[in-house]
Design goal:
- The protein is an alpha/beta fold.
- It has 18 helices and 14 strands.
- The strands form 4 sheets. The chain has a 6-stranded parallel sheet, sandwiched between helices. Strands 5-4-6-8 form a 4-stranded antiparallel sheet. It has a two-stranded antiparallel sheet with strand order 9-10.
- The mean pLDDT is about 95.
- The chain binds 5'-O-[(L-methionyl)-sulphamoyl]adenosine (MSP).
- 5'-O-[(L-methionyl)-sulphamoyl]adenosine binds next to helix 1, helix 8 and strand 11.
């Protein structure tokens, strides 16, 4: 199977998209574009996205907004979809967990899992912010307050259905250890292996009187499916499971998730898949969090950054640039408006924008014609290794070092002096060499900055005389 299937986490619709939500999409889109770039005849690249709409968290937010939960979910789901469109993410599928097809398929999944399901009384803690059952050990370690949501855990005493995780622990451990299901970055892999040891069987339902907004448990009117079971299933119901054969796309090539929800993807999700007799995803890519001014974004701190505002400020390419390069792929990184403006002016406008203008001007004055593009099959091996290992921010740094190098080369070779001294042959060699290198760098940029890359091809990549663009690629503020 040479198809590529990439999945992004589906956000809750209890609020508007913020810049943190951009990460799953950007990483998946960059990889999708990279796989299309390296190609292979017949490979299809599929990228799934969607929204997670059930559960009490969403239900209560709808109530406080004074809207019906259906209307509210639709409104916010549309906002996420607009956001993904605005970011030019090349997704191929979009799912809402309230789609009736999805709900029906989840019920079938439940039925297939019955040999691994039992009922028992749950008497313990729950965090509604995380939509997660909390063990006594976690409760004690956090003094009963969720560190992510700063809210005390609720005490629940209720009858629930459980999924017997213990049936699958050995297999999950083995597949994580032997890399059949790779977890990136490496330090998270160990974290998940430790967590797996402590994971008890998982409750997969809530009594309907506590949670009405969800998929009904088949054959038991009094219970509704736990929101994570419903949400995780999206990765296969979107492909048509269980009605359709999904083997052309499943197992997923990679799933992109934030560090906070890796545990669901590294433990709960594999248990569900093994219970269904399906293979585990090939790779889980877990990214860090985007901080705002060094702190976690929260409404109460008033530091939530609206991604649309970021896009408006310097355009989409600048947005993609900052979040792919300056937000590290794997660990927490900071966004501030100052850093963003600095990166735009010093790097996009100076390093790259000026390079393009200077080189186009020199070529134009000296009647150098464009170089045909798109035939560089032998991509730089260092870049290929980094991209293949999902080391996107490092790969981007590597491209940038080449761009800086090109600026130095212009300064050192001084083509304007060669022109002044009438050294035409040397001048042509120097300029052709610089253009060829720039066009090659543009090819490496394609997965990250598709429009910029296309503009560079347009300016330098045709046979006619190279024209200096009327407006720079990244006009300075
Ligand atoms: N609904 C669940 C996911 C279900 S997937 C079957 C959920 N939703 S979420 O809205 O809280 O988060 C969606 C994604 O955004 C997750 O990958 C999460 O890690 C990511 N992020 C949320 N805040 C973030 C930052 N501040 N920074 C980076 N990513 C963050 O969890």
């Amino acid at each position: 199977m040479s198809n590529v299937y990439l999945c992004t986490a589906i956000p809750y619709v209890n609020g508007n998209p913020h810049i943190g939500h951009a990460m799953d999409y950007l990483l998946a889109d960059t990889y999708a574009r990279y796989r299309r770039l390296i190609g292979g005849a017949g490979d299809e690249v599929r990228l799934s996205a969607g929204t997670d709409e059930h559960g009490n968290k969403v239900f209560r937010s709808a109530e406080s907004a004074g809207m019906s939960v259906e209307e509210y979910s639709k409104l916010n789901s549309d906002k996420f979809r607009n956001f993904i469109n605005k970011m030019d993410v090349t997704y191929t599928d979009f799912i809402r967990t309230t789609d009736p097809e999805h709900a029906r398929r989840c019920q079938e999944i439940w039925q297939k899992l019955t040999p691994h399901i039992y009922t028992a009384e749950y008497d313990g803690w729950y965090c509604e912010g995380c939509e997660r059952f909390i063990t006594q050990k976690e409760y004690d370690e956090t003094n009963g307050v969720c560190p992510d949501h700063q809210k005390p855990y609720e005490r629940l005493t209720e009858k629930n259905y459980y999924l017997r995780i213990s049936d699958f622990k050995d297999e999950i451990r083995e597949q994580i250890e032997n890399g059949k299901m790779a977890i990136l970055p490496e330090f998270r892999k160990q974290e998940m292996l430790n967590l797996l040891e402590d994971t008890p069987d998982i409750s997969i339902s809530r009594p309907k009187k506590q949670l009405s907004w969800g998929v009904p448990v088949p054959g038991d009117e009094s219970q509704v499916m736990y929101v994570w079971l419903d949400a995780l299933s999206n990765y296969i119901t979107i492909l048509g499971y269980p009605d359709q054969d999904i083997s052309e796309f499943w197992p997923a090539t990679a799933q992109f998730v934030g560090k906070d929800i890796l545990r669901f993807h590294a433990i709960t999700w594999p248990a569900i898949l093994l219970g269904l007799g399906l293979p585990l995803p090939q790779t889980l890519v877990s990214h860090g969090h985007v901080l705002s001014n060094g702190q976690k974004m929260s409404k109460s701190l008033g530091n939530v950054v609206d991604p649309m505002e970021v896009v408006e400020r310097h355009g989409l390419e600048a947005f993609r640039y900052y979040f792919s390069r300056h937000i590290d792929t794997f660990v927490d990184s900071d966004f501030t408006w100052e850093k963003y403006d600095e990166a735009y002016n010093n790097e996009l406008a100076n390093d790259l924008g000026n390079l393009v203008q200077r080189l186009a001007t020199l070529c134009n004055k000296n009647e150098i014609s464009g170089i045909v593009t798109g035939d560089y099959k032998d991509l730089d091996p260092k870049y290929v290794a980094l991209m293949g290992n999902f080391e996107f921010s490092k790969a981007f740094d590597y491209i940038w070092s080449q761009i800086r190098e090109l600026n130095k080369e212009i300064d050192q070779s001084k083509p304007w002096e060669l022109a002044k001294n009438g050294e035409t042959a040397r001048l042509r060699t120097v300029l052709y060499d610089l253009v060829a290198k720039l066009v090659r760098a543009a090819q490496l940029l394609e997965p990250f900055l598709p429009d910029t890359s296309a503009s560079i091809y347009r300016i330098f990549g045709v046979d006619g005389t190279i024209q200096r663009p009327e407006t720079p690629l990244f006009p300075k503020d």
